[in-house]
Recover the amino acids of this structure.
């Protein structure tokens, strides 16, 4: 007797289920409920009970520490972002704009692992095996024998393939193209993505197989599908960059086996993605000497300092309200800094258009670039060029004080190595420095007014 499908309504925004259609979901979204059908599981599965042994709790003090074995991807920048390599049994979700290089870095990783003698299965629901072969020929050179490809969208067939070849690494490109026979809904729907995510987690954890899952993104840049998938996986990576630029930045938004503050830098070349060892040099290679509104800033990402150029342009507003535009920086933070500059530095910016740009497509997090942004605006407004050998770091408060930032000592060492002769930084950081390089002068400032005088 055929099983009767059960009809439910699922919110496309949050994934919440409801037995009836409603105008507004509990998450606050309107008209987001879509109808989906679920085939009931076998009665034998439903009636299965947990055994007494499986339900027996274990004392936390008696649980031994587990040494997570990692697999070398053959790409140092990727290993850095992952926390040292792929952990066996882990699920890694990687997202990014179309054409940014997700499939390229994945096929390079697959080829490197296959060359080490381990079997790799590449499951593609978007491309044929011939298309994957063409990309592999271009970016991998000699294709290893242990790299297998499977153009498939049915998850049950993927499970059978995994049982047949026992891969040491599994790639799913992409999860939005997969579907399970257990659900009567289209691939990419909320219920299908959630169900396929759960099954992939079971495959990875039970078989101790690391899995790379490619995910689509929405127009706003967020991961498409329910948030449940992000909670299931162990690591969420995002590939970012500008289409008209060759630099690509890989960042971790979630990592159960490492830090989320690391970034990896790649350069898109004809033969695939090449690692960028000196990311600071890449960001600063086109910096113009003696340019007004240009300041060199720095942040500390993961285990290394990253230096980049902050540009600002101040021009008279001819029509209507003055514009405030920031690319790579926070617009709300920019408005605050402009208010501080008007109040504490006497700059008349009410009728001035202000544009701020972080060169290279980098989007630095935190507040350590506040002082660099403020001085770049001051430089453009006054028409005064900054010294090309000066680095600026520091957070600005509403009172105009310059506050301490983290890892200032490590930033100083990197600045000296790159040939910077002066570093303007918070006075609280400057007085705590122990080993100051001989070729670098540290200038500690307490507030914005002092920084402008030293500028």
């Amino acid at each position: 007797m055929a099983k009767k499908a059960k009809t439910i309504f699922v919110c496309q925004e949050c994934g919440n289920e409801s037995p009836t259609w409603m105008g507004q979901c509990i998450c606050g979204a309107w008209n987001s409920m879509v109808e989906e059908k679920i085939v009931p599981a076998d009665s034998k599965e439903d009636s299965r009970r947990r055994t007494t042994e499986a339900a027996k709790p274990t004392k936390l003090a008696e649980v031994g520490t587990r040494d997570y074995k990692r697999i070398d991807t053959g790409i140092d920048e990727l290993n850095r972002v992952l926390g040292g390599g792929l952990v066996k049994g882990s699920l890694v979700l990687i997202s990014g704009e179309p054409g940014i290089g997700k499939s390229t870095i994945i096929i390079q990783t697959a080829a490197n692992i296959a060359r080490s003698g381990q079997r790799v299965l590449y499951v593609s629901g978007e491309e044929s095996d011939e298309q994957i072969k063409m990309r592999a020929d271009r970016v991998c050179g000699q294709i290893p024998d242990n790299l297998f490809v499977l153009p498939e969208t049915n998850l049950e067939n993927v499970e059978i393939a995994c049982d047949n070849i026992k891969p040491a690494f599994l790639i799913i490109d992409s999860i939005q193209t997969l579907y399970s026979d257990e659900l009567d809904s289209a691939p990419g729907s909320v219920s299908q993505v959630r169900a396929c995510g759960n099954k992939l987690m079971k495959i990875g954890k039970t078989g101790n197989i690391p899995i790379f899952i490619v995910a689509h993104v929405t127009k706003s840049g967020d991961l498409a599908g329910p948030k449940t998938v992000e909670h299931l996986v162990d690591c969420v990576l995002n590939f970012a960059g500008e289409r008209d630029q060759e630099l690509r930045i890989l960042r971790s938004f979630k990592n159960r086996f490492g830090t989320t503050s690391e970034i990896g830098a790649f350069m898109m070349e004809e033969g695939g993605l090449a690692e960028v060892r000196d990311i600071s040099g890449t960001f600063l290679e086109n910096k113009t000497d003696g340019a007004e509104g240009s300041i060199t800033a720095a942040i500390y990402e993961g285990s290394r300092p990253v230096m980049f150029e902050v540009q600002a342009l101040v021009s008279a507003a001819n029509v209507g309200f003055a514009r405030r535009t920031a690319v790579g920086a926070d617009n709300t933070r920019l408005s605050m800094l402009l208010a501080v500059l008007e109040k504490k530095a006497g700059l008349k910016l009410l009728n001035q258009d202000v544009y701020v740009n972080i060169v290279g497509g980098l989007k630095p997090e935190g507040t350590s670039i506040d002082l660099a942004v403020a001085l770049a605006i001051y430089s453009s407004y006054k028409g005064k060029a900054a010294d090309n050998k000066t680095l600026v770091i520091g957070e600005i408060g509403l009172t105009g004080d310059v506050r301490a930032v983290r890892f200032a000592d490590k930033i100083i060492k990197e600045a000296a190595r790159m040939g910077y002769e002066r570093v303007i930084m918070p006075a609280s950081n400057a007085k705590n420095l122990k080993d100051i390089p001989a070729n670098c002068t540290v200038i500690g400032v307490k507030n914005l007014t002092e920084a402008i005088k030293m500028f």
In short: Residues 190-207 form the longest helix (18 residues). Residues 6-43 form one domain. The chain has three domains: 6-43, 70-277, 282-454. The mean pLDDT is 85.
